[in-house]
Design goal:
The structure is a single chain. By secondary structure, this protein is an alpha+beta fold. Helix content is 34%, strand content 21%. The protein has a five-stranded mixed sheet. Strands 3, 4, 7, 8 and 9 form a five-stranded antiparallel sheet that branches. α2 crosses α5 and α6 runs antiparallel to α7. The relative contact order is 0.11.
């Protein structure tokens, strides 16, 4: 008996408890994902908890995450959630060696948290969304009880010290149970992935079979002189795989084009409308080059790109529904776009209907929208930052007022109205580059959507501003490339750029944060000439 008691106090006992906790957590997660594959993939516990964390995180935290991790911010969040779960599982597993019921209750508590998060999501449609987290937690709690009993069974009542299945600890019994648990969890995980993948097959097939119609109003070719032949400068048109992605979706929605619907309703409408994708595609579509910019883009940052978009003019759809802009007596001054995942974005009705090419886009650079960028339909309003204009996976448009409703980002202290600021960026040379002495090309892009770029200037150290050579402006809704030939001299140098827009306003020198309405300031890089 003493031998058994002393063995129970060794570190190996705690290691078994930790392993039991991890296997229980693994079981809970894979069972939950399996059930989510049957119910709704977006109701998986990691997805709903991650979404709840994103929704409740202060704007400054979101801004830090995007600035620090870029497009990997969601991966980092998911890894963080899994790390917290793993540490909690280890603690519960060790604790359950002496208090199995309490350990199991801890697992169930995590399930309740997941269920609450699922039901709180804006895209939750029924109480069934709580089922994955609850089912996973129940199976996880049972698994922990079984493994804990194998790792720390009751002492041998006869006091003989023998290791029997019903009495003293059995290493073989625990390892067998752990192996069976791991194998079952792996099988459930594979099945869950299979079911989730099958649910998305319809969306994949619908995109693959979608043939985009020819535009009634095609975009003219980009001028040859609008694209500078400078190594390392951003291409005028950003390829789809390289186009930035900033959103809150932990799981990219995959919508079957055949089931997609758009509803237009709200204040001031005399004729509420609903459209299928087929109906949208049968309308006269326009094709336009538009530069899209994220409000989270730091000075000199990467969250900007230009694509050739194909879509239906949004103003026409609104007029058919009876909408008038406020300047013409309309009752609504805000258009709230809703995504399939519950995201809401608010755009000024006046801007949408002032003659700019605001569209419901169905195509991007000659192909249907990629899933990451909003397939089957997204909204674009030139001249406004994406968080107030570029709703992906759009399913609803509601006309309301700014006084009556605050969309997602406005509730988090971002500005209601967000016209894009005049900005410029040095693409080459890169920061801390070591170009050789002699002729060096400094080049980059500048943008001032709806105003156009009239001039770009470069300064070397504290010298005078020098005017650059500009590529031909495509449209006022696109960025503009520029270059400057510099005779580099040995030493360290700071290169700075600024732009002047079509109204004559010079890009501000004052540095501002991205919150609440976009970053401001001049971009500069430091280089060393050997």
């Amino acid at each position: 008996m003493a031998g058994v008691s002393s063995f129970r106090s060794t570190p190996s006992r705690a290691a078994l408890g930790a392993l039991a906790g991890l296997l229980a957590a693994l079981t809970a997660l894979v069972v939950a994902e399996l059930v989510a594959g049957l119910v709704r993939p977006a109701a998986g516990p990691v997805t709903v908890v991650g979404g709840a964390v994103i929704d409740r995180a202060p704007a400054a935290v979101k801004d830090f995450a995007i600035r620090t991790f870029g497009e990997n911010d969601k991966t980092v969040l998911q890894l963080g959630i899994l790390a917290v779960l793993a540490l909690s599982a280890i603690a519960l597993g060790v604790f359950s060696l002496r208090h199995r019921r309490v350990g199991a209750a801890g697992v169930l508590l995590f399930g309740l948290v997941g269920a609450a998060a699922a039901l709180s999501r804006p895209d939750s449609s029924s109480v069934g969304d709580a089922l994955p987290s609850i089912a996973g937690a129940v199976l996880g709690a049972l698994t922990l009880c079984v493994l804990a009993s194998k790792a720390n069974p009751a002492p041998d009542p006869a006091g003989t010290g023998s290791e029997t299945v019903s009495g003293a600890w059995s290493r073989r019994g625990f390892l067998t149970a752990a192996g069976v648990t791991a194998a079952a969890a792996a099988s459930a995980g594979v099945l869950g992935r299979f079911l989730t993948g099958r649910l998305g097959l319809g969306a994949v097939a619908s995109r693959a079979s979608l043939v985009l119609p020819s535009p009634a109003s095609p975009a003219p070719p980009v001028p040859v002189s609008g694209q500078l032949k400078v190594p390392d400068i951003s291409p005028f048109t950003t390829p789809n795989p390289d186009f930035y992605r900033v959103d809150t979706a932990l799981t990219v929605p995959r919508i079957d084009a055949g089931t997609w619907r758009l509803r237009i309703h709200g204040r001031g409408l005399t004729r509420p409308r609903a459209y299928t994708l087929e109906q949208l595609l049968s309308r006269p579509l326009i094709e336009r080059d538009i530069t899209l910019t994220c409000v989270s883009n730091e000075v000199g940052g990467p969250y900007i790109g230009t694509a050739r978009w194909l879509g239906a003019p949004l103003a026409d759809l609104l007029r058919e529904a009876g909408v008038r802009p406020p300047s013409q007596g309309g009752k609504a001054d805000q258009l709230v776009a809703r995504s399939v995942d519950g995201m809401t974005l608010g755009s000024p009705v006046e801007d949408v209907m002032d003659g700019r090419d605001a569209i419901l886009a169905v195509g991007m650079n000659g192909e249907p929208l990629p899933f990451d960028h909003g397939f089957p339909v997204r909204m674009l309003v030139p001249g406004l930052y994406g968080y107030v204009s570029a709703c992906k996976w759009i399913t609803e448009i509601e006309l309301t007022t700014f006084d009556a409703y605050d969309p997602y980002w406005v509730k988090r202290k971002w500005a209601r109205r967000a016209p894009i600021k005049t900005q410029s960026r040095i693409d080459t040379p890169k920061p801390f580059a070591r170009p050789a002495a002699g002729p060096v090309t400094i080049a980059g892009v500048a943008w001032a959507q709806r105003r156009g770029v009239a001039r770009v200037e470069v300064r070397i150290d504290d010298g005078p501003w020098q005017e650059t050579d500009l590529a031909t402006q495509d449209t006022v809704d696109t960025w503009r490339q520029w270059s400057y030939r510099w005779n580099a001299t040995p030493g360290g140098h700071t290169l700075t750029v600024r732009a002047t827009d079509g109204t004559g306003s010079v890009q501000t020198e004052q540095r501002t944060r991205t919150i609440p309405d976009g970053a401001g300031g001049w971009h500069s890089v430091f280089v060393t000439v050997p």
